[in-house]
Amino acid sequence: MSVKVYNKSPLFSAHYKTSRRETFTIWMKSLVCHTNGCTVFDSNGQIVYRVENYDKKCSNEVFVMDLRGQVLFTIRRKKTLVFGRWDVYGWSSCNCNIKKEKPWFQVKRYCRIFSGDIGCQLTVGQNKYWIERSSSPYIGAFRIVNIYGGIIAEVSLNGYGF
What we know:
Blueprint: E1 2-7, E2 23-27, E3 36-41, E4 47-53, E5 61-65, E6 71-78, E7 85-90, E8 105-112, E9 117-124, E10 127-133, E11 142-145, E12 151-157
Antiparallel strand pairs: 1-2, 1-12, 2-3, 3-4, 4-5, 5-6, 6-7, 7-8, 8-9, 9-10, 10-11, 11-12
Pfam families: LOR
Family: Belongs to the LOR family.
InterPro entries: LOR, LOR_sf, Tubby-like_C
């Protein structure tokens, strides 16, 4: 199964930058034998990112790397009483974790009790974004919107959109 990510604004990556709309394909296979991970390809079929989890399938920590295996950032899951939180930590060019005590950004699950919506809040510095699920139960689609409702990026399963 693959997922396509349709970015509506310039990408935010130290190694991969473009000002045009880009489509990524996520292949749910690791490039390393007998590990759990996935590989991200751009629209030209080139490998852009590797996501590896060397411990086990449902670990609390995953590594996002470039093609050469250099770690770009680490995603760590923090468990709370009701909803989960994920902290993302950046890495420097020497492959050592920088500012380990302060995450680069955070993703928190939220629930609006009266409307029944479940989603995630993405916090990058002082900026807040929302990850929303498609209203259709048949389409595995998500989008990231800013506080004004403007679409930043869309994620859809095998090309299906909102």
